[in-house]
């Protein structure tokens, strides 16, 4: 099928409520339209962002407008967003370094551009591979989408686009905005299963043992062997890869987690340590897969 990824279930509905629960009651206050705007935004992000053409996206926006008018006393898209083609953007990155971060509507696009460009300058100042990007509003919206996904618990993203469309650059920028670590494998000559599993151990230890928020960026050009995708699938489904750990790795995990578990009054058995490690991995590790929809390989991989 041309749109084989148009599959939605109750988990997607839960994502909408997950987004609504990120709202700060003090910022929403008495303005019902603010919360209604958040409801519209989360529906667009969860459902509309999977749609592949403007016709489908327009249909979904009209559906949101229709349901909103039916359920919220005639208040529709134009009342909440505006009639002049204004953009509906929410984010928690407007105040860099704020703790806790406030998920709020972005009303000033010039201010948003300034924040993103500052984050880009900061990233370029500390990296060996600076990115020369022109931050136009569509690109900034994509950065905001990636930020939203990686900030959610168990948040993982599939980015579709042809090579050179900015999937990797915007993911790096989103990770910098959210102050997350970014991990990417380096495929050199002779890169195979052993090197891949070494890299997996490294990124899982960062997330599970060290407790770092990590974005694992993986592209279809790095799929040297198809079984790499099986391991990614295992991480997405359960947070672990079968037969990955060596005995010294298990010792490292136990030494890192036992003091933390002891403080929380958790049992310190091997099974409990392993379960706690997997919980931390699933919470802290965010996989972003960058794929091209051009070849038939993508459709075959979707069906796997």
Q: How would you explain this protein's 3D organization?
A:
This protein is α/β, with parallel strands linked by helices and 304 residues long. 54% of the residues lie in helices and 8% in strands. The protein has a 4-stranded parallel sheet. A two-stranded antiparallel ribbon has the order 1-2. Helix 1 runs antiparallel to helix 3 (32-46), helix 3 runs antiparallel to helix 4 (54-71) and helix 11 crosses helix 12. The radius of gyration is 21 Å and the shape is globular. The mean pLDDT is 88.
* Structural class computed from helices and strand pairing: alpha/beta
Number of helices: 13
Give the N-to-C terminal Cα separation.
14 Å
Shape: globular
- Tell me the strand order in the biggest sheet: 3-6-5-4
Rg over CA atoms, rounded to whole Å, is 21 Å
Summarize the entry for a quick read.
The chain has 304 residues and is α/β, with parallel strands linked by helices. The chain contains 13 helices and 6 strands.
List the helices and strands and how they pair.
Blueprint: H1 10-20, H2 25-28, H3 32-46, H4 54-71, H5 77-81, E1 90-91, E2 104-105, H6 109-126, H7 137-151, E3 157-160, H8 167-177, E4 181-183, H9 193-208, E5 214-219, H10 227-238, H11 247-263, H12 270-284, E6 285-291, H13 296-303
Parallel strand pairs: 3-6, 4-5, 5-6
Antiparallel strand pairs: 1-2
Helix pairs in contact: 1-3, 3-4, 7-8, 9-12, 11-12
């Amino acid at each position: 099928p041309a749109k084989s990824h148009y599959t939605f279930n109750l988990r997607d509905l839960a994502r909408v409520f997950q987004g609504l629960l990120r709202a700060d009651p003090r910022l929403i206050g008495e303005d019902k339209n603010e919360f209604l705007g958040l409801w519209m935004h989360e529906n667009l992000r969860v459902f509309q962002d999977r749609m592949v053409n403007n016709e489908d996206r327009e249909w979904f926006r009209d559906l949101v407008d229709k349901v909103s008018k039916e359920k919220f006393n005639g208040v529709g898209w134009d009342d909440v967003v505006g009639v002049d083609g204004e953009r509906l953007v929410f984010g928690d990155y407007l105040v860099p370094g704020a703790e806790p971060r406030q998920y709020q509507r972005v009303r000033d696009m010039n201010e948003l551009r300034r924040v993103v460009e500052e984050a880009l300058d900061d990233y370029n100042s500390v990296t060996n591979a600076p990115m020369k990007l022109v931050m136009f509003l569509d690109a900034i919206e994509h950065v905001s989408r990636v930020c939203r996904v990686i900030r959610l618990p168990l948040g993982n993203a599939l980015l579709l686009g042809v090579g050179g469309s900015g999937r990797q650059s915007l993911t790096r920028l989103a990770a910098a905005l959210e102050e997350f670590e970014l991990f990417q494998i380096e495929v050199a000559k002779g890169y195979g299963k052993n090197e891949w599993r070494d890299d997996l151990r490294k990124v899982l230890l960062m997330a599970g043992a060290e407790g770092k928020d990590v974005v694992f960026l993986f592209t279809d050009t790095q799929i040297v062997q198809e079984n790499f995708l099986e391991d990614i699938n295992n991480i997405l489904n359960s947070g672990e890869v079968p037969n990955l750990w060596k005995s010294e790795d298990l010792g490292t995990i136990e030494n890192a987690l036992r003091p933390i578990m002891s403080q929380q009054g958790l049992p310190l058995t091997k099974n409990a340590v392993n379960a706690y490690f997997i919980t931390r991995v699933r919470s802290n590790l965010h996989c972003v897969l960058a794929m091209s929809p051009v070849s038939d390989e993508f459709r075959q991989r979707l069906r796997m």
